[in-house]
């Protein structure tokens, strides 16, 4: 028998009385909890007794039997699960077997793997980072022959239903832990109790799933929650689709209100072991995920976000002021230092003894000797010394400055991040049935549409030019997870990516949602690679480049299935329609960056040529158009296609070429700095190509852009644009004797020479991404041995 306080014991007595008289046990239980809530001076005080509420539930469910004994009896008498129920936590051992799995994300727990027969198979052992579950017993994820033996053979109900219904309603009331942190403990106890019940065996799991799927009229649900002193969020009350609803859709939408919903996520993953529930929640997930995405942004971009922007502006203003003051101090130090040097030289020339310990102390300078700042040699010496002092001052202030922080927990992104990373891969994998679900197309397009809106709003809030510098970590995580979701859906969709295309005149054209998505991300990632502050964010730099690139490569693979079946006329029409779809919203580097580069360079106290040279911009639009051109030139003769391009289409191609040259310029700029001075962000860029295992890298696409331009545009204008872009502002750096300017000039000249070689020998132009060779590897020896690509 469970021991519970007197005020909760009375609920148990009333419940038993209700059952014996034929009344609703659930209504009695709900009313009893409501009455107890009213007896406490505050809700916070009631939630402090959350453990006693759970003890009450255990006593009711076990009919006053010892709860552990009751659970053991159920476990011994009811049928076991049909599939493994292990949910992976952090550092759990798991296995992947290429011979048994049906997808890259399929895996087994150590117990099931070791109990199965995988002799001679191609398998690997991993340590889990958290999230995911064992696929043993799941025919969608793992071949039956690879299951372990256990899963190959694979009145109490009313009490449980009453208790679990109350648990579901209480769970709704304690999910908003960001605003009310004192609810977190009760939330965890409630979830633990529900998960333990569902995890017992297949029968208890089915009971739990039935309760979670149970529908309520919204008015009835509101009335029940009022008894528990809880009002549903406005985004539920104001949405007509919730006039009839179950608890689960609301819980998913409320994730944005929770500071840590990880236990709820694991609870859902347990419920997914029930095949009927999994089929049901797939529809719920497709309905709620796009809304959850935008709910997350709306919560994050409220007053707290505006405060963060104001805070960043204040810090930036102070930093600019501090830097200006530091420059003045460094200049005074430089003058005094040089004056001291001259004074010591005069002392030595006069035969006076110079105290070696007086270095750095002020030595009076004869009045007849002054520094002539009009003398170029003196001016250069002053500037060089000033820079040295300024570097030391910046380092000193960076070490001693007390930085003000805004609590990142106020930005509710953790819940969305954790939930999606754990659940999303359970629905989208190689053999997923979601791809041919009747609502898949609607879901896919809605995800793209809301993702575009999300990115646009964030760029407005933090500006494209500096969002990589000023974006708070929670926003960065939100963008990362959003891109991950889109990529995960597309990765294994293959032919089902056709839902992102309409048909006009017998050929595919990208739908509005796809165009809007790639246009929104067409200029993502202005990154001056020289900045120290990027040391802590290399994963973000990669994700903003790698994930959109991977998504569009999934689209490219789909188009590879379609374009070869076209006639040449159809293929050319497909390319022209794709170009025309993006022309209205295209932003070329010159237009986009004309003022932004100078502004950012000034704010970051960087030379404009230095900032430009190390700047990385990723254009999704360029990638898509290059993919279309690649498919045309790969399967059809394209010499005559250039004559069919309109003036606007040629301008688009010119802009894409210019952007490709800028990318290559940024790429080679890094090498000019010298490896001894590389920072982590430099190394990230250098090894960026290795992130694109089976797909073309950004550098390869940039090379291809120039190859296309040389075939379809006047060669002289292409070369002139290349030279102008690569050598932009280098002359200023040379005049100022910047230490990296000579290296930049050398690498830029090298790139121009390589381009001249391509113009001279057109046979080296190749249109297969997979055999493209990067410019820096194209030496004379290589050219004599290979006839494919650069």
UniProtKB/TrEMBL annotation:
<comment type="pathway">
    <text>Protein modification; protein ubiquitination.</text>
</comment>
<dbReference type="GO" id="GO:0071596">
    <property type="term" value="P:ubiquitin-dependent protein catabolic process via the N-end rule pathway"/>
</dbReference>
<dbReference type="GO" id="GO:0061630">
    <property type="term" value="F:ubiquitin protein ligase activity"/>
</dbReference>
<feature type="zinc finger region" description="UBR-type">
    <location>
        <begin position="82"/>
        <end position="153"/>
    </location>
</feature>
<feature type="domain" description="UBR-type">
    <location>
        <begin position="82"/>
        <end position="153"/>
    </location>
</feature>
<dbReference type="GO" id="GO:0000151">
    <property type="term" value="C:ubiquitin ligase complex"/>
</dbReference>
<dbReference type="InterPro" id="IPR039164">
    <property type="entry name" value="UBR1-like"/>
</dbReference>
<dbReference type="GO" id="GO:0008270">
    <property type="term" value="F:zinc ion binding"/>
</dbReference>
<keyword id="KW-1133">Transmembrane helix</keyword>
<dbReference type="GO" id="GO:0005737">
    <property type="term" value="C:cytoplasm"/>
</dbReference>
<dbReference type="InterPro" id="IPR003126">
    <property type="entry name" value="Znf_UBR"/>
</dbReference>
<keyword id="KW-0472">Membrane</keyword>
<keyword id="KW-0812">Transmembrane</keyword>
<protein>
    <recommendedName>
        <fullName>E3 ubiquitin-protein ligase</fullName>
        <ecNumber>2.3.2.27</ecNumber>
    </recommendedName>
</protein>
<keyword id="KW-0808">Transferase</keyword>
<keyword id="KW-0862">Zinc</keyword>
<keyword id="KW-0479">Metal-binding</keyword>
<comment type="similarity">
    <text>Belongs to the E3 ubiquitin-protein ligase UBR1-like family.</text>
</comment>
<feature type="transmembrane region" description="Helical">
    <location>
        <begin position="742"/>
        <end position="760"/>
    </location>
</feature>
<dbReference type="Pfam" id="PF02207">
    <property type="entry name" value="zf-UBR"/>
</dbReference>
<dbReference type="GO" id="GO:0016567">
    <property type="term" value="P:protein ubiquitination"/>
</dbReference>
<comment type="function">
    <text>Ubiquitin ligase protein which is a component of the N-end rule pathway. Recognizes and binds to proteins bearing specific N-terminal residues that are destabilizing according to the N-end rule, leading to their ubiquitination and subsequent degradation.</text>
</comment>
<keyword id="KW-0833">Ubl conjugation pathway</keyword>
<keyword id="KW-0863">Zinc-finger</keyword>
